[in-house]
Amino acid sequence: MLLTDNDLQSIWLTLRLASIVTLILFLVGTPVAWWLARTRSRWKGPIGAVVALPLVLPPSVLGFYLLVTMGPNGPVGQLTQALGIGLLPFTFWGLVVASVFYSFPFMVQPVQNAFEAVGERPLEVAATLRASPLNAFFTVALPLAAPGFLTAGILTFAHTVGEFGVVLMIGGNIPGVTRVASVQIYDHVEAMEYSDAHRLAAVMLIFSFLVLLALYLWRPNPKNT
Amino acid sequence: MKPIVTLSIAAALCSAAITAHADAIQVAVAANFTAPMKAITTAFEKETGHKVQVAYGSTGKFYAQIKNGAPFEALLSADDLTPIKLLEEGAAVAGTAFTYAVGTLVLWSAKPGFVDAKGEVLGKGDFRKLAIANPKVAPYGAAAVQTLTKLDVLEQIEPKFVTGENIAQTFQFVGTGNAELGFVALSQVMENGKITKGSAWVVPGEFHTPIRQDAVMLEKGKDKPSVIALLAYLKGEQARTIIRAFGYEI
Fold this sequence. Notes:
The complex is a heterodimer of chains A (225) and B (250). Chain A has 225 residues and is an all-alpha fold. Chain A is 76% helix and 0% strand. Chain A has 11 helices and no strands. In chain B, strand 9 and strand 10 form a beta hairpin. Chain B starts with a helix and ends in a 5-residue tail after the last helix.
């Protein structure tokens, strides 16, 4: 067998993490992107800047502050404990929460651009045809912005697969729970098991290329993105 | 690692090599030895006039960098195996390896009174997470596993492991309270020869094989008087006093 059981476990975990994070961000990121695309509020600038922050912060720094905030003395940690969830660091769902923060701009920005490209007019036309705002959003804005959603989904998924610093900081490297593929490769390198590292890295590379290739080939005419 | 990170490391190394003082010594030092090395460097520079440029990091990463042309002239490793490996592969100078420090393992908690003086807290198992350094790559992690094996509690505690990539990250897990306790280096919790924070059990030396940290001269530093002087200084009583004050034995 080309890969060890531990390698396969880490790949499976990575895919599960990236899929769940992408799904959550579709639900959470879309309203934010919609608001940013349409608002005339003076908060648009500050909120947009906050959304983009994870692009700037070094992942290990972001990871460290997530570790502190979600820890037993941090505000989030005290909240999760009060709710009976326990502490998030060193758990799979802790990784999910951290990754949602980390990949937030990769979902919001392409979707926001797509909504902005749709513009006011199609929605005004829909309104004259007596579509409610909600109805217009689902039947007009969403389909027109579909290519933007595809780009955002691909970027979010790929970015989560490639995530390393944040996971390293709050994961605790537990097999099957928080040891994702990028950490597993790093482990191999640190242990000087270079041939294992090469194999796993090659599998990740080929897999990622094929997924991206399939999505880009299948992608509709990208005139809106 | 992302390509941009690799690139920036490469760029940093290049610029470091270009801007380095003509006879500045380039040393790679294990992260756990950061604090004593800073004190030693200051004393050494003052005494000899040589300049020292130190990179702190994990021994495994240094190994990869040295094998791929990093400009380091000496390595202060976190273990005694990497210098041997470099010697066998011709990247280090034969006959220059020596033990500069022996690490002391400590079971530590940020909470006062949590860890008792005999480490009996391990047998009770009254905790959620125990942090150790990755035993595959970090000598302190391997020593922690040996200690738990010796106490016959490895199997019951293993499911509670969280693993730091190195001893610095392991300390973070315990220091932030995310793990109630963990095995760290005595040098991390010691200040002026005393443990000042939390509670600790200093693991007796016979519980694990000694955590020997060896230094070696690398091919790039061969025959350079400044590098020879630094390694000699590390063996001297002045450096050893500093090393002991930070919780190492030598």
